TrEMBL record:
GO biological process, one term: transcription elongation by RNA polymerase II
Organism: Drosophila gunungcola (fruit fly)
Name of this chain's protein: PCI domain-containing protein 2 homolog
Database matches in Pfam families: PCI
Leader peptide range in chain numbering: none
Domain PCI: 208-389
PROSITE patterns in the cross-refs: PCI, THD_1
Membrane-spanning segments: none
PANTHER family for the chain: PCI DOMAIN-CONTAINING PROTEIN 2, UNCHARACTERIZED PROTEASOME COMPONENT REGION PCI-CONTAINING
InterPro entries (alphabetical): Csn12-like (IPR045114), PCI_dom (IPR000717), TNF_CS (IPR021184), WH-like_DNA-bd_sf (IPR036388)
Amino acid sequence: MFGTVNNYLSGVLHSAQDCDGESLGTHLSLRDVHVQNHNLYIAQPEKLVDRFLKPPLDEVVSAHMKVLYHLAQEPPGYMEAYTQQAAACGAVVRLLQQLKDENWCLPLMYRVCLDLRYLAQACEKHCRGFTPGHVLEKAADCMMACFRVCAADGRASEEDTKRLGMMNLVNQLFKIYFRINKLHLCKPLIRAIDNCVFKDSFPLPEQITYKYFVGRRAMFDSNYQAAVQDLSYAFSNCPDRFASNKRLILIYLVPVKMLLGYLPSKSLLQRYDLLLFHDLALALKAGNVNRFDEIVRDQELVLIRSGIYLLVEKLKFIVYRNLFKKVFAIRQTHQLDMGDFLSALQFVGLTDVSLDETHCIVANLIYEGKIKGYISHAHNKLVVSKQNPFPSMSS
């Protein structure tokens, strides 16, 4: 047993002496093969570890071995494992502070923070007795301690600055904040990245993930132009071999672009198994409100789970707009009887709609800028502008 443990600790020591952050991170990752070694499951490994390593690295390794011990119990002690992983994260903060002008240990920080998030998610799933999201929020607090050290590192050269670790941590924090629905906490992180002189020097995979989350946040803030810009960057730069990731980006990019008047091609949607949006686009283009409602109703659970149900509901205004534009094209007049809009709604299957409801729909379209005009209640007519009464959605 002790021979195996000694070999493991020797490997950790050599990685630290060689300033090999990747190797050190692997030795302390819950995804590495060493976690299957039962000899490393020790409840109190401090004496063994202290023979090889100095503070604060010894604390990181001791906490890691305790995590392995608690996860090996039956049933697994997720909360105890999380507590030890949080202790490891705290020790990594002290290690970062100790290595004032070096950043070789950033890969270690990435692995420890990643495993902290995974264990927090396991606690949320398997443990009881606390408010949902509580453990994940505490994990975010631990990661923020790492982030503050990295963000404050202004003394190091460009090659050795810890600020190069900021985006990786921000992406981890985004995943937590989106999961616990605290998107307002993303704002200071976005500002920190925007103000970072190295924002174009971060690895491309990190930039893709960052743009994906920033685009989603812009979408929730109804800043659709910015959302399209960020999500398009993420999609175009994501390698084709990561088809599932590209599909995930499209789930948000497609409805946002539809809101701006850009309809997706069937071939693109077919390639990523998203023909739901093709059906929606056909109904939208035809102004078929009833068909649009049927699709949303049938796919309600999918849309809710994806977090785009309300976004897709906003597309309904464009369906109304396209239907009423057909009425305008048929009548060829700038004074349109409100009864014609009611008839159009009934024609596409909304048989229970009233004239008052039709007035409300038109009023909302005017307010949203999708129709340029006003309602003359005295004459029961919509008077539309003679110049571009139905503005382009892309404008």
